[in-house]
Amino acid sequence: MNNGVLAQKTDAIIHQAKTAFKIDLPLIGFVQPRSTKEIESSNWIIGCETLDRDYADYDQYKETIVPLGIKLLRMQAGWAKTEKVKGQYDFAWLDHIVDDAVSRGLKPWLQTSYGNALYPGGGGVNLGAGMPTSKVAFHAYLNWVAALVTRYKDKVTDWEIWNEPNFGDNTENTPEITADFNIRTAEVIKRIQPNAKISGLAMGHHDYKFIETFLKCIAKKHKVKLFDNITYHDYVYNPDANNQVIFEMRLLLDKYAPDLKLRQGENGAPSFGGNGRGAIGDYDWSELSQAKWVTRRMLGNLGHDVECSIFTIIDLAYSSGPIKRLNVKGLIQSDSSKQFIRTKLAYHSVQHVTSIFDNQLERLGDIVHTFNIEGAAANEHRYTKSTDRSTAVYGYRNKLTGKQVYTIWVDDYIPLNTNEIRSFTFSFSNADFDTPVYVDIITGGVYQIPADRWSKKGNTYTFKNMPVYDGPVLIADQSIIKFLSNKN
What we know:
Layout: H1 11-17, E1 27-31, E2 44-47, H2 58-61, H3 65-68, E3 72-76, H4 79-82, H5 92-103, E4 107-111, H6 135-152, E5 158-160, H7 175-192, E6 197-203, H8 208-220, E7 229-233, H9 243-256, E8 261-266, H10 287-303, E9 307-310, E10 316-317, E11 326-327, E12 332-334, E13 340-343, H11 345-356, E14 361-363, E15 368-369, E16 382-385, E17 391-398, E18 404-410, E19 422-428, E20 436-440, E21 445-448, E22 454-457, E23 460-468, E24 473-477, E25 483-485
Parallel strand pairs: 2-3, 2-9, 3-4, 4-5, 5-6, 6-7, 7-8, 8-9, 15-16
Antiparallel strand pairs: 1-21, 1-25, 10-11, 12-13, 14-17, 16-19, 17-18, 18-24, 19-23, 20-21, 20-24, 22-23
Helix pairs in contact: 6-7, 7-8, 8-9, 10-11
């Protein structure tokens, strides 16, 4: 693998990212990526999935994780790969991955999937598989979970139960069975590691009735406290189209398990499409629309207080199960032999998000669109805009300085493979800027906002004719953005 690719953005990537850009602001620099070692904590998780089935090779991309600026790594722990002889566990493959990740300051988030064909009724080993059903198989499964947690309890604190129990047309994994399976697995984990953080459900496509029944079951059995969060996966063509799903899930959690957090456990988009390569694969994706999709989903989740996991770090070479082809949702391009080729545009765009949005920022609360910004209370955040186009707008402030940053993008359609820039005027109440700058998340470009393009009246700031499109842009106080000067 050519690690030098991480230190540069190729001409091809820059050219593609800037196609049709007409940002009429002075460019002053580019967002400076921050490594995992420079970030204490954040909202972000990166998928390192399918290593248990050898659809990817950890050693091909391990050097790329720390520069990405994300600490938590989602991966399956692989019962079938570990127990190939009944009662004998060979953790060497997983030791290699966990030990390497921990040595780099990373935190594995291990999922206790999938089944094992050694045992009759042992469950399936691929996406959409049924859970272990026979008493013998389930006992063997729990023994493996116990051995897994015992082995890694000093290195791993984050766990997740079975992946996507309702995937496809699976009717074996009912919500009642899934709830019982989650409870019994979580009890084993907590018995060995009381401080474990356990993610439950790992929901595939959104199913309101399935989720409610699952939550009702764990609440009725007084087992909610076993879990730290509830995870869901929601692949939609427009990354902002799942806001209603988030709202509905939060209502259900508030009803049955108000202390549980919500975590987007898996989400991503292909870098090219039109060929049905997995979820949402039949759209004509490009590296540009993939980068827009991923960063919009990340910042949309952040704006709704949802932890966000990106699927996935590298293209996956599926050799079995329901797909059996290359899944090109990776931030890194690989091939059918699982070889690292290069980082994609989305890799660098994700770096721009992680560099800026860490735990030093806190959300302002709901930013309310109104036609009358006058009279906003001191703790109320309103905005106006000079368009009837639907836009996503979220606001944050630095916990120490109080200085602010707003994220903005057009959210009413699937990300395009071109950049159609429009000029909108925004006003924000109770804002706080010293030197506002404009940032394009996709390219990382940081631009000066000239004095004649912004004004302040009391605590209301107005920004005139700001370039906006279907990729995220920021209006931020310059102190929040770490960037490399364009003069260097």
